[in-house]
């Protein structure tokens, strides 16, 4: 068993309305000193076997085809 | 009633499939229910992907539906010229399937919004819009939470240059769509994706009017003339 | 599982009669616990204690309200329309052409305060499953909401979450939201009210009931798997029974999965159509405990269940927790052995997990085993139907007289009526609720004839189910409630809630037929609250009798209070009506010019509990407007007759804010203004809240016929529709643009 | 300038309908060997100053009050 984390964020050129809404709300709540906030998704994928190259390639394919929409999103993989 | 048969796909979580079928019937064609798990288009002449939240839209609107068995038949058929209309969730599925460019993301104001929306029909050459007159202004409900159309700059300018924006929001842009885009078509004009819901504007009794009906009569005309 | 030593089996209970049990921590009184021992002839096992404690809770047993609610039965008017009355998951009303509708309203107040989004979402989910369990297709929802002051910081936390939750869940189910209420008042600040209503449609001969008859029939649990949802309370049971490590904190909130619920709806309807369901029950509060005891109690009387067969999301769940879990999106069905395969096939088609967990018996006992050990062995009726009943003491609040003496007649009245109208129109309770309703899908399914901002939601019921007979009928529905009126006089207040909902249904041209209600009050252990409750129920039952509309079901929500301060007593009443030809519905709003504007009914000087007194003076006192049920009835009959003959361009009932608000809203909805003359004292005419009144616009040419029909009702001709302003002759005018700006900017300014 | 990552996941005992929907879809897409998927949120918070203890305490408070709904979610912080 191993856990692979897939982080998915909107591409920088796409307006991140959620992140912006949070950034706008912060000063109202008394938080200052934040330059920007971006919001994305985080997936924890538990795989049955070890996180070897073959398994990671599989998860990468999964991220490309399903977990992220590469038209608008970037993703990164890491083993935890 | 014409003999044209228009398929309406039901995915788990589809909601406006009955409405789409009703619109097809009011346009005097026959509505054929298609099931997500059945990889067979049953010889239909055109297909509608209805609104709703397929698979709950839990991952991303349309992301999981794209892989349904029926889509494995539909995608090549659409590429080969079958008229396909994706409404709302259907539009999202078409983008996820790369039958249409761009993507639909969370509304700029982060709320689901349901409004009677003014639109301008910009392209009347598609399979689904020929019964409108160019530039016609119509009122059709929009209702979505992830309806903001986005595409990269190159795609956007290509869409504009080729006149592939099918309809545009007038007045208030309900979701922050780029260039006020409410709908787009593929190069061939057979595949159309639309965020507004023409199937909710087909009867005086239940809609803000009947401005949506021509989407359904257009395709019929095309099929009868074909 | 090698956990046998931890299992509190029936035999162990018999051997350890004196073991201490955490009944008090579970909210059970000592005499109640003693009664359980007496019923069983031994101490209960921990699983049995779980079942009795939740089934005998206020929420499930109605122990404080039952003695009062009986009046809804004893005073029920004769009605040919009632197919299923109180006591089932929801009442069923015959609407003609072989069709029936079922509807019910339920509260999810406390969960919505703790976690607004999920609390409200699961509130919708729960009431939808109630409607499904009658064999109906859910076709619409409504939501009746109360919050603290609009600009209070906590309202800004709660309201957006509640609205997003109702929309997020209801929209995903494909159920149009066709109406509701949003009311702000200080008293709801720590106790928002979230009452959700669902309407379902079914063929008259296809009603399903929660019953498990027929020994040998199988008990099937289907839908989402069971997890540790909403069992915060069960942890005390765990501490008495379990080792340390299994005491992981259990969440007290439930989260919803609307996608599964949507599929569950379609799956259930296919099961019904295939006729493979003998009895069915939704799993709501008290989950498996409630479903098994109620099904068994209403059936042949016995049931054997293997609790270890319940599919779990979390394998560490203990049997007590499984019994109490409130995991959402689950149903329980009773199926004959021959039909089990077909049943499973249909569930598989919808990818819906389904498991046979037991069997109906004729033993008169509900028996449950856990890996072979008997852990529950009770007569199910004792848990489901024979809970404690309290006739709690009640007494008129000490401040009631003083409150009623505080007459609003002496309040200073405004000089500038134009400004006063705008002030009211922009006040949170009267301002446009579009910020809320725009987050709800009102179009889905294509049968919504009227929704926001109409007085009542209206649905066409044709083509609801495949193969149904055609019908021209429509079903109208409205919910109303006024906590301020009810505080001033609970008996009258509940009647006024009914009268308003009834009038709203009449406004669209429908005939009111039946009633549901959700009674939101403070603690029943407070005699003054109990008095409010008793008076409200008495008032509602009496008024239903007079108006000839039976109560078909409802829900009671007690303990809505912060410390010792209760909310305003808030009975919310839903009225359902039928219109024979839905194309005859009367729309809100002045959509054409040249129609005659009439005020129907009599205006008296009535400002007790009014929106004007509240907004202008923060005043609450005096008596609410007089109830005149006979006048309401005549008005409703007139509206139905005029609608059927197509005489009306528009209608709008008068309620909060009086004629001023009704006129302004009619201009706003229809896009034409009007020019009117006030017949009497302008202030009173504009802002009084006298009941049994309606504003109508009569189509040109239909005036004399309408006058004929209206014989016996006070009719005042006010003027005509037209123009782009609300013009009050000799007083003032306000452009529609200014009206709109005032009306629509309030909520966005606070919540965006 | 520093970037603090806030990962927000549903508490383990809370139904993760999103993760469940993905996990159910995977075999259909030909991905096997995945035991489970959980979906959460990822926030990238850019702060003006350095990510010192005070700043982190600030972001933690922000996570508690705004980014995570601690009734049903857990969160973790890390500096990137
Ligand atoms: N205020 C009320 N008026 C009439 N009937 C009520 C009221 N409150 C509860 N009931 C009836 O009592 C029964 C049990 O209510 P409830 O526990 O809410 O139903 P369920 O078990 O389906 O959730 C139902 O038939 C309901 O209609
Ligand atoms: Mg029920």
UniProtKB/TrEMBL annotation, chains A, D:
Pathway: Purine metabolism; IMP biosynthesis via de novo pathway; 5-amino-1-(5-phospho-D-ribosyl)imidazole from N(2)-formyl-N(1)-(5-phospho-D-ribosyl)glycinamide: step 1/2. Part of the FGAM synthase complex composed of 1 PurL, 1 PurQ and 2 PurS subunits. It comes from the Bacteria. It catalyses: N(2)-formyl-N(1)-(5-phospho-beta-D-ribosyl)glycinamide + L-glutamine + ATP + H2O = 2-formamido-N(1)-(5-O-phospho-beta-D-ribosyl)acetamidine + L-glutamate + ADP + phosphate + H(+). It is an enzyme of class 6 (ligase). NCBIfam families: phosphoribosylformylglycinamidine synthase subunit PurS, PRK05974.1. It is found in: Cytoplasm. PANTHER family: PHOSPHORIBOSYLFORMYLGLYCINAMIDINE SYNTHASE SUBUNIT PURS (PTHR34696). Keywords: ATP-binding, Cytoplasm, Ligase, Nucleotide-binding, Purine biosynthesis. The keyword Glycoprotein does not apply. Its EC number is 6.3.5.3. One of its GO terms (molecular function) is ATP binding. Part of the phosphoribosylformylglycinamidine synthase complex involved in the purines biosynthetic pathway. Catalyzes the ATP-dependent conversion of formylglycinamide ribonucleotide (FGAR) and glutamine to yield formylglycinamidine ribonucleotide (FGAM) and glutamate. The FGAM synthase complex is composed of three subunits. PurQ produces an ammonia molecule by converting glutamine to glutamate. PurL transfers the ammonia molecule to FGAR to form FGAM in an ATP-dependent manner. One of its GO terms (cellular component) is cytoplasm. Belongs to the PurS family. This is Phosphoribosylformylglycinamidine synthase subunit PurS. Gene3D superfamilies: Phosphoribosylformylglycinamidine synthase subunit PurS (3.30.1280.10). Its main location: cytoplasm. It holds the Pfam family PurS. The lineage of its organism: Bacteria, Bacillati, Actinomycetota, Actinomycetes, Streptosporangiales. SUPFAM superfamilies: PurS-like (SSF82697). One of its GO terms (biological process) is 'de novo' IMP biosynthetic process.
UniProtKB/TrEMBL annotation, chain B:
The keyword Mitochondrion does not apply. Its EC number is 6.3.5.3, 3.5.1.2. HAMAP family: PurQ. InterPro entries: Class_I_gatase-like (IPR029062), PRibForGlyAmidine_synth_PurQ (IPR010075). GO terms for biological process: 'de novo' IMP biosynthetic process. One of its GO terms (molecular function) is ATP binding. Part of the FGAM synthase complex composed of 1 PurL, 1 PurQ and 2 PurS subunits. Keywords: ATP-binding, Cytoplasm, Glutamine amidotransferase, Hydrolase, Ligase, Nucleotide-binding, Purine biosynthesis. This is Phosphoribosylformylglycinamidine synthase subunit PurQ. Pathway: Purine metabolism; IMP biosynthesis via de novo pathway; 5-amino-1-(5-phospho-D-ribosyl)imidazole from N(2)-formyl-N(1)-(5-phospho-D-ribosyl)glycinamide: step 1/2. One of its GO terms (cellular component) is cytoplasm. Coiled coil: none annotated. The lineage of its organism: Bacteria, Bacillati, Actinomycetota, Actinomycetes, Streptosporangiales. Part of the phosphoribosylformylglycinamidine synthase complex involved in the purines biosynthetic pathway. Catalyzes the ATP-dependent conversion of formylglycinamide ribonucleotide (FGAR) and glutamine to yield formylglycinamidine ribonucleotide (FGAM) and glutamate. The FGAM synthase complex is composed of three subunits. PurQ produces an ammonia molecule by converting glutamine to glutamate. PurL transfers the ammonia molecule to FGAR to form FGAM in an ATP-dependent manner. Its main location: cytoplasm. Gene3D superfamilies: 3.40.50.880. It catalyses: L-glutamine + H2O = L-glutamate + NH4(+); N(2)-formyl-N(1)-(5-phospho-beta-D-ribosyl)glycinamide + L-glutamine + ATP + H2O = 2-formamido-N(1)-(5-O-phospho-beta-D-ribosyl)acetamidine + L-glutamate + ADP + phosphate + H(+). The keyword Protein biosynthesis does not apply. The active site is at 88 (nucleophile), 197, 199. It is found in: Cytoplasm. It comes from the Bacteria. It comes from Bailinhaonella thermotolerans. The gene is purQ.
Automatic annotation (TrEMBL), chain C:
ATP binds at residues 62, 104, 517, 554. Pathway: Purine metabolism; IMP biosynthesis via de novo pathway; 5-amino-1-(5-phospho-D-ribosyl)imidazole from N(2)-formyl-N(1)-(5-phospho-D-ribosyl)glycinamide: step 1/2. It catalyses: N(2)-formyl-N(1)-(5-phospho-beta-D-ribosyl)glycinamide + L-glutamine + ATP + H2O = 2-formamido-N(1)-(5-O-phospho-beta-D-ribosyl)acetamidine + L-glutamate + ADP + phosphate + H(+). Mg(2+) 2 binds at residues 130, 282. Mg(2+) 1 binds at residues 106, 555. It comes from the Bacteria. GO terms for cellular component: cytoplasm. Substrate binds at residues 107-110, 129, 254, 326-328, 557. Residues 87-201, 455-579 form the PurM-like N-terminal domain. It is an enzyme of class 6 (ligase). Its main location: cytoplasm. Keywords: ATP-binding, Cytoplasm, Ligase, Magnesium, Metal-binding, Nucleotide-binding, Purine biosynthesis. GO terms for biological process: 'de novo' IMP biosynthetic process. Its EC number is 6.3.5.3. One of its GO terms (molecular function) is magnesium ion binding. Residues 1-25, 379-413 are annotated as: Disordered. InterPro entries: PRibForGlyAmidine_synth_PurL, PurL_linker, PurM-like_C_dom, PurM-like_C_sf, PurM-like_N, PurM-like_N_sf. Monomer. Part of the FGAM synthase complex composed of 1 PurL, 1 PurQ and 2 PurS subunits. Belongs to the FGAMS family. NCBIfam families: FGAM_synth_II, PRK01213.1. This is Phosphoribosylformylglycinamidine synthase subunit PurL. The lineage of its organism: Bacteria, Bacillati, Actinomycetota, Actinomycetes, Streptosporangiales. The gene is purL.
